[in-house]
């Protein structure tokens, strides 16, 4: 039974936790440790986990502004992917022998997480149902899916990694409206992310890591994390704040901005409704819209559906997890466009969370030996699995291990400020985000309208391609 407090309402996932949700004690005194970590999401906690595994003698403290999992880690769509945003840009530049190593590391994410789940006896409703990226709802998605599959082949992923399903096979998996086929991959699992992040916190605590909750860090500096009332001195300081990077003063450039994504969860659906929708093997689901969508069938038979992002001027972080009635209505309209059979399904949960978008549009793990500053993140909304890989990389960099991970394209040594691309100052980045979002929305409206003239759709498509390339 869980104790009701505001944290339980953060997401459907938090509500499902078995253990009581009682915040750990806050930090009230100064501390000296080997490693001090800001942020108890997947990045901070996996980093603590691998550091302790490799060097049990290290003293480690994690400082979290709210509770472990409060950020994106406890509120996401629950897709655990053996994939990295930006892998195309990384792989295309590498000779084949090195590209092979990179692919092996990326594809090794789920097996590694699964290994730890077993080793640490963690139950997070892990289910390896694969994933479908459907070409659905409008014709242009068919071309996009084929182009994506070609691109994945150029990156060196084979038929066993990503394969084409025709309309009948894809619809049998997920019966999305007007399905024309889709790309299937076995490299996605679904989880309850709040269960995983909370269990990780307990696991590292048992290993001797100190976690302080309701302890916002004000300043991140070489050798120091500072809160309103205490100082933590450490040889190594790790910033693991992702979408919340701007909440602490740090000698770092504006490398990551927060974008909010919104999720709806239906009531448990009837067997008849599931017969109409598919999802029998519980695959993760998305379509080829540029506006981003993601869904999974939960263990208790609900459909979780997330879509679209929003950026607020000045990189304001959305603190309020609850969605307004207007936001819920808008998300529901979007959901019904995918699955009209859900017209009568009640929405029981709705929330938003902030993810981090780095200017380089790909994840990073950085460590500066001289200053002792370390940083990982930049997942572009695909951090549930990627955080595990970045944390393992960061642990190797911090411990100066001569490992394959330390040679990966996402591993950076040297001054962090020189490594990461900076976001443009306001109002440029707000204007850029809004312009791209409007072009994508305009293109989608045209594609969805059978009366749209071909020339207009083609113009919108070309503009949208140009807009997308701005980020890469
Ligand atoms: C709605 C939504 C859906 C998503 N769906 C998916 C998905 O299905 N699959 C996927 O792979 N990825 C998904 N993502 C992205 C994924 O959740 C994130 O990339 C990942 O959880 C990032 O983990 P993190 O630990 O780096 O950041 P976070 O989990 O955001 O952790 C940062 C932590 O720092 C804390 N904090 C903030 N400020 C301070 C401070 N000043 N001092 C101390 N602590 C502070 C926060 O409270 C938070 O706990 C989604 C994200 C969102 C928002």
Automatic annotation (TrEMBL):
The lineage of its organism: Bacteria, Pseudomonadati, Pseudomonadota, Gammaproteobacteria, Cellvibrionales. Gene3D superfamilies: D-Amino Acid Oxidase, subunit A, domain 2, FAD/NAD(P)-binding domain. Transmembrane segments: none annotated. This is Glycine/D-amino acid oxidase. SUPFAM superfamilies: FAD/NAD(P)-binding domain. Residues 34-397 form the FAD dependent oxidoreductase domain. It comes from the Bacteria. InterPro entries: FAD-dep_OxRdtase, FAD/NAD-bd_sf. It comes from Microbulbifer marinus. The keyword Oxidoreductase applies. Pfam families: DAO. GO terms for cellular component: cytoplasm. Keywords: Oxidoreductase. GO terms for molecular function: oxidoreductase activity.
